[in-house]
Amino acid sequence: MFSFKIPVIVEGKYDKLKVKQIVDSAVISTEGFGIFNSEEKRMLVSKAGREGMIVLCDSDGGGKQIRSKLKSMMNGAPVYDLYIPEIPGKEKRKDKRSKAGVLGVEGMKNEVLEQIFSRFAGAHPELVSGDEESKPQREQITRSFLYEAGLNGTPDAAQNRKLLCRELGLPDKMTVNALSEILAIVSDRKTIEEIMKKIRGDT
Question: C-alpha 156: how far from its chain's center?
Answer without folding.
Answer: 28
